[in-house]
Amino acid sequence: MTTQQYLEENRDRFLEELKALIRIPSISTAPEHKQDTHHCAVQVQEYLVRAGLDRAKLYPTAGHPIVYGEKHLSDDLPTVLIYGHYDVQPADPLDEWDTPPFEPTIRKTEHHPDGAIFARGATDDKGQMFIHVKAVEAMIQTGNLPCNVKFMIEGEEEIGSPNLIPFITEHKEMLSSDVILISDTSLLSKDHPSITVGLRGLTYLDVKVRSARADMHSGLFGGAVANPINVLCDMIASLKDENKHITIPGFYDDVQFPSERDRQLMRDAPFDAQEYMDSPGVFGLEGEKGYTTYERTGILPTLDVNGIWGGFTGEGSKTVIPAVANAKISMRLVSNQDHEKITQLFSDHFKSIAPETVKVEVKPHHGGNPYVTPTDTAEYRAAADAVKKTFGREPVPMYEGGSIPIVAKFKEVLGVESILMGFGFDTDGLHSPNEHFGLWNFYKGIETVPEFFQAYSRMKDGV
Amino acid sequence: MTTQQYLEENRDRFLEELKALIRIPSISTAPEHKQDTHHCAVQVQEYLVRAGLDRAKLYPTAGHPIVYGEKHLSDDLPTVLIYGHYDVQPADPLDEWDTPPFEPTIRKTEHHPDGAIFARGATDDKGQMFIHVKAVEAMIQTGNLPCNVKFMIEGEEEIGSPNLIPFITEHKEMLSSDVILISDTSLLSKDHPSITVGLRGLTYLDVKVRSARADMHSGLFGGAVANPINVLCDMIASLKDENKHITIPGFYDDVQFPSERDRQLMRDAPFDAQEYMDSPGVFGLEGEKGYTTYERTGILPTLDVNGIWGGFTGEGSKTVIPAVANAKISMRLVSNQDHEKITQLFSDHFKSIAPETVKVEVKPHHGGNPYVTPTDTAEYRAAADAVKKTFGREPVPMYEGGSIPIVAKFKEVLGVESILMGFGFDTDGLHSPNEHFGLWNFYKGIETVPEFFQAYSRMKDGV
After folding, report:
1. Which residues of chain B does A234 touch, with a Cβ-Cβ cutoff of 8 Å?
2. Same domain, B407 and B383
3. Does A66 touch chain B (CB under 8 A)?
4. Looking at CB atoms within 10 Å, which of A365, B119, B152, B169 has the fewest?
5. Domain at B402, CATH number
6. What is the domain range of residue B174?
7. Which residue numbers delimit the Peptidase M20 dimerisation domain (chains A, B) (predicted)?
8. Is A82's pLDDT higher than 70?
């Protein structure tokens, strides 16, 4: 039986198994879902066993466990290490979901005429991770696995992978490989496949502005004391100029743009502004002057407030001047920017612009460095060939806006490049209500991955 | 017997009667205290009868009753209308009271070496309102009342006086008077008496900025779409210039400053910055350039954000670009500013400064107009003379930061100016745990009010 025949025969079972995995609310940031998250890891382990891997076990960490598995055929064959994650983002706001976030339901959409699974984690990353589990199962069960394979599926990607770096540092030998394969990014479209070659890094901080010990009455104190909310708004507003250029001194020092050729390829790639805007129903596009949307999300760094709170936020009115105001601020980083350096630059600058009437605290959360995949390697060519074969068109090398901070760490600690072969769409509602993953995409992924294994093994054999 | 002799002889009884009134928990906002609040109104009515008023009755309203009473001597004499309230704020947080809020106890404090009554409502406004009841009793019982007097004591001041405007509109004739006398404000200090001549108005609005239908992933959309929190911060920051001057066009059109003489009197008044800052533990004073603290809270309008919220505000990090951000914004108004006009100016301006990538909603809450007592009138001169006689020093005409919206309505509906002759201190803990009212202040008030009646009657007679 060929791998493709096996895939055909097991389509329905694959989908049911994925739905079972999605039903587990493995929200890694929520302490109340700790048991669910662990349960999800055990479930992934069982699927790896079922796929035919020789070793499949949970590695406990200080947080959620890492699921590892491998199939070793020969020391003479190359080794592909597959990385993914089984944890998901929180599902709130719950009332914006058309169906409950952990009850996967299939519905058709404009982009998914064959149907899509609606659920938290459907595309990020359970569906995409599961593609590899099932593709490898098909190769093993039909005797067509052409090289060694390893799986490393973590449960803390959505909270910054705090325990993965200690893990890979400790298990370098076990994780030795020739290439790392990851599906946690997007395709341009069915007709215009793409491979992600750039990921942005991330710096994320909590800031607190305090002007007094206790809240104040706006009649007695209004006009004569610093209102920490107004101060915080002033400070945040000053972080960008009128062209949306970030004003933190030194912020752009380590930014290098891709070659003019690569920028041109991205400019030539189809971009449907309306479609891009439709998924979150965004009212308009804007950004730094002089750049396309792909460039704004791919090769430029950003600064966004992810949350803000302070004072009276209930129904009605309360004439209070609060003592404190808070915000969560993150920056997406590109090319050679270093997240620790940027954290320091931000922190120093933010404190320096505070008026004397307030005290400012800056507390960094997790961060990560950007990553760029070289495109002149055997693994990139193999990936491009596999995609060309199943999609019928050469993929565009895309710089994307998201962050998978661990990819830069893989290069740093394991010395291995990553191939980012994603199968979802940007319009799939990642991290948002009504997240979904197309059935076409799911099956196309399972079909493409074995082609990569074949092409890569051939190329490495030829080298 | 002179009025002052009567006051001397009845000091202890006055205090016991006030304590009895304070023991009634007349919390107007609490449905479970509806009977208590009614009982308190009946008690006030009985004290008015005891004072010797001819008519003293309760007027029922849709909420708590209004207590009315009058002593009519002659159509040829002027009439003083006394306004006050018998309802009080809730007492929570209860565990911050040193003694139970409705069991009045006398303790000495730094500002009250002769002792103060600690209880909810002690100064706001039972103690201050009772000053007038006892002063009028003394004048009537000694045959020294020099003019007509009316009392209007309401039970809904702490919930915005919803039924008082219909009442005064309906009973204009009954309430006809030459001046309204109110004790619901503060003195600077024992050594520096003051009369409040300015109250700020208020405009309070909810604003909402939306850039999309649903929340977005900051990786996919960061840099290419409007972040409503950043936009809201930009918009709020732009509402004041670098000197803290409000930038809304037309905002200051109806602002008139007091005479240079009155401003100089305020500048000369003692101001203890440390004491002012200590109560909320504020780190520093700031405000519009070129003004003192008294001027910033008294004669300048303000714009403060009372609450702000949007995006992810839980523990940890979420890389979301929210669809919506919200704020509660209020403006304290002065002199001739009209709260409805300012609401419109704010709303128009706020919408006009929004970028095209967002939609803005502005929802007004309640509002009220500022009030300024003219200082070149018989009634103000009478009040200043009375205070000078009993305190031994000319009072400072003070512009205060708080709002008593009903005072502007008295002018509008009844056509009569108000004299705001308060006897408490700002440090007496109004609306807070351990509210108290000094015994010295209580008796000094009872001594001062008859002097006002005498001086006012003489001046009106002389006109």
Report:
1. 233, 237
2. yes
3. no
4. B169
5. 3.40.630.10
6. 3-199+370-462
7. 200-357
8. yes
Residue A275 lies in a domain: no
pLDDT in tens, A87-112: 999 998 899 999 999 999 999 999 99
Residue A262 lies in a domain: no
Q: Mean pLDDT in chain A?
A: 95
Verify whether the Cβ–Cβ distance B312 to A307 is below 8 Å.
yes
pLDDT tens digits for range B63-84: 999 999 999 999 999 999 999 9
Q: How far is CA A255 from CA A220, A261, A342, B153, in A?
A: 49, 18, 12, 70
* pLDDT > 80? residue A261: no
State the pLDDT confidence band at A305, using cuts at 50, 70 and 90.
Answer: very high
A159 close contact with B: CB closer than 8 A? yes
* 8 A C-beta contact, residue A100 and residue A114: no
Report the SS3 class of residue B127: helix
Q: Say whether A287 and B225 touch across the interface (CB within 8 A).
A: yes
Distances (CA, A) of B217 to A365, A375, B68: 18, 27, 62
Q: CB B222 to CB A318 under 8 A?
A: no
Q: Specify the residue for token string 């009106």.
A: B460
B residues 398-437 lying closer than 8 A (beta carbon) to A: 400-403, 426, 431
Asked whether residue B9 is assigned to any structural domain, the reply reads: yes
Residue A271 lies in a domain: no
ipTM of the complex: 0.88
Q: Considering B338, B368, B398, which residue would you say is the last residue of a domain?
A: B368
- How many separate domains does chain A show? 2
Same domain, A384 and A423: yes
DSSP codes of every residue in A51-120: HT-SEEEEE--SSS-EEEEEE---TTS-EEEEEEE--B----SGGG-SS-TTS-EEE--SS-TT-EEEST
| CB-CB under 8 Å, B317 with A160 | yes
* B158 near A CB under 8 A: no
